[in-house]
Amino acid sequence: MIEEIRDIATRSGAMETFIVHPERNGPHPAVFLLMDAPGIREELYDMARRLCTVGYYVVLPNLYYRAGRDTKYGPDVTTKGSAEQTRMRAVRTKMTIPPMMEDIADLLAFLGSQSAVEPAPIGVHGYCMSGPYALAAASRYPDRIAAAASFYGTWLVSDAEESPHLTLGKAKGELYIACAEHDELAPLPMVAELEGLFERSGNGGELEIYPGVHHGFAFPQRWCYDKPAAERHWERLIALYRRRLG
Fold it and tell me: According to the model, what pLDDT value does residue 166 have?
């Protein structure tokens, strides 16, 4: 595989982005992997590489780039009350959906200039804070995004501008929403409300609750990692991309 870290020009500055794609038989369909709140780290690079091995051009941007270069955090970023978590949350709490949609537009424009990218609709999936971004992107750019997935997305029903629950019916691509049974950032009553909205949206996708697991279950280095559930998440994601992207 071929991988690089490069700055992608956006209307807000230079977005540091990890890109990995197969060495042979290109061009390949593109997918955006959107990070969780702890931010860019080797664990996410490895997840991007895994998707690359099944034939995708994977783009993993540092969504915290507006806050500068010093937005990669140490391993205790997930420890409640730690200095690294406090530093991360100072950036995270300023994140909103509208500027993220600008970033998606700029990333889409970037793909158009890459010979290794198949000129076809793309996929996008996000974890944790980026679950809403992935679903919102599918609604904002319905003719460009053929598949979108949210894995334990936080507050998918909220008062936020462009909250994805408001626009599910605008997405033309297939949506997949995976929720953990135990998740204080996406409690089951909210998931039940979202499920009703999803059913009424007419989208042909799926909302699935993963039983017995906690928020973050797909990350191998997290305390709550659950291998069977994590492998199911890969199965669902790759099958979604195969159906919609090839």
Answer: 85
Q: What share of the chain is helix, strand, coil (3-state, %, to 5)?
A: 40, 25, 35
CB 241 within 8 A of CB 56: yes
Q: What is the mean pLDDT of the chain?
A: 95
Beta bridge partners of 126: 34, 150
- pLDDT mean over 135-160: 94
CA 214 – CA 189 distance, rounded (Å):
16
Q: Which helix (H) or strand (E) holds 218?
A: none
CA distance 48 to 65: 19
Angle at which helix 97-111 crosses helix 131-140, to 10 degrees, equals 60
- What pTM, to 2 d.p., does this model score? 0.95
Tokens of 160: 């936020």
